[in-house]
Amino acid sequence: KVAEARKRKNQRLKQAKEEAQAEIEQYRLQREKEFKAKEAAALGSHGSCTTEVEKE
């Protein structure tokens, strides 16, 4: 019985770890996407300022 309980506990821990890893990966991808969008917006506005200065 004790061995079975340990086995079930280890399985639960392994499953929880896998779920946490998946959640972390999903969060990281979401934050990376937001960062890329902000970066593109910042560089895009910076790029237009640079072209205006070059025109003058």
TrEMBL record:
Keywords linked to the UniProt accession: Coiled coil, Hydrogen ion transport, Ion transport, Transport
Domain of life from the UniProt record: Eukaryota
Record GO terms (molecular function): ATP hydrolysis activity; proton-transporting ATPase activity, rotational mechanism
Pfam families: V-ATPase_G (PF03179)
Gene Ontology CC: synaptic vesicle membrane; vacuolar proton-transporting V-type ATPase, V1 domain
Family matches, as InterPro entries: V-ATPase_G
Coiled-coil portions: 3-37
One GO term (biological process): synaptic vesicle lumen acidification
Residues annotated as transmembrane: none
Function: Subunit of the V1 complex of vacuolar(H+)-ATPase (V-ATPase), a multisubunit enzyme composed of a peripheral complex (V1) that hydrolyzes ATP and a membrane integral complex (V0) that translocates protons. V-ATPase is responsible for acidifying and maintaining the pH of intracellular compartments and in some cell types, is targeted to the plasma membrane, where it is responsible for acidifying the extracellular environment.
Similarity section: Belongs to the V-ATPase G subunit family.
Quaternary structure and partners: V-ATPase is a heteromultimeric enzyme made up of two complexes: the ATP-hydrolytic V1 complex and the proton translocation V0 complex.
Name of the protein: V-type proton ATPase subunit G
Organism: Aptenodytes patagonicus (King penguin)
